[in-house]
Design a protein that fits this description.
Elements: H1 13-30, E1 59-66, H2 71-83, E2 88-93, E3 107-110, H3 115-123, E4 125-130, H4 142-149, E5 153-156, E6 172-174, H5 204-219
Length: about 220
């Protein structure tokens, strides 16, 4: 049986650029909140097969993001994961030379990564890690949408996700510090897990469809 490799499809960038002002305006002034209607991912869910990801190194958990003020927390989480034998990859962008005090094989400081390559890393991980700089803001980041679109587990320090319509304790775990980081959540199961939610709701396909409909009504 031939396996169809999951390859997220990026939408036409010109279409997004044409609509970005409208999207930001609607988010700021209309504040649309019907499910995740105002939140979308650039990952298309036209193809979805988590059992046959892109080629490359496989990891239990993956993080990629800017250092900001969360670097110390990321280091402590990484240490805990490594101590428990978890196969992990952390890629930290934007860290100053003076901040780069911790070094390890899979704790890497990077200057640039394409979104396509980032998706390749995500596709090859069992779980994605989200570490928000501030947990006082409500809402959902693109990391959440990517996890759902790619059918990956998610660990986040955003406690608001517990009340999200897509919340599933088998797919989503939250934490407040490295001390209550649930390592057992990363254990593999014999039964394939899936988000019990329609990932199309957050896809770029729906975003473009929604904006086309909005523009059509506006021009009438």
């Amino acid at each position: 049986m031939q396996c169809k490799i999951y390859q997220p499809v990026l939408p036409n960038i010109d279409s997004i650029l044409q609509c970005i002002a409208i999207t930001h305006s609607m988010r700021r002034f209309a504040k649309i909140r019907t499910g995740l209607l105002s939140s979308y991912s650039a990952v298309s869910c036209q193809y979805r097969n988590s059992e046959c990801p892109w080629g490359g190194q496989k990891y239990s958990i993956y993080f990629m993001g800017r250092a900001k003020k969360r670097l110390n927390l990321l280091v402590e989480i990484y240490k805990k994961l490594k101590q428990n034998g978890i196969k992990v990859l952390f890629e930290i962008a934007g860290a100053k030379e003076s901040e780069r005090t911790f070094f390890d094989e899979n704790f890497q400081y990077i200057d640039f990564i394409t979104y396509k390559e980032y998706l390749r890393r995500c596709s090859n991980a069992d779980c994605l890690l989200e570490v928000m700089q501030s947990t006082s803001n409500t809402g959902y980041t693109t990391r959440v949408l990517e996890a759902i679109s790619l059918n990956k587990k998610l660990i986040s320090n955003n406690q608001d996700l517990i009340n999200a319509p897509f919340y599933d304790k088998k797919m989503l775990s939250t934490f407040t510090s490295e001390n209550d980081f649930n390592i057992e959540f990363l254990n593999k199961t014999n039964t394939p897990l899936h988000w019990n939610y329609d990932s199309y709701q957050y896809s770029a396909d729906k975003l473009l469809s929604f904006l086309r409909e909005y523009l059509y009504k506006k021009d009438k």
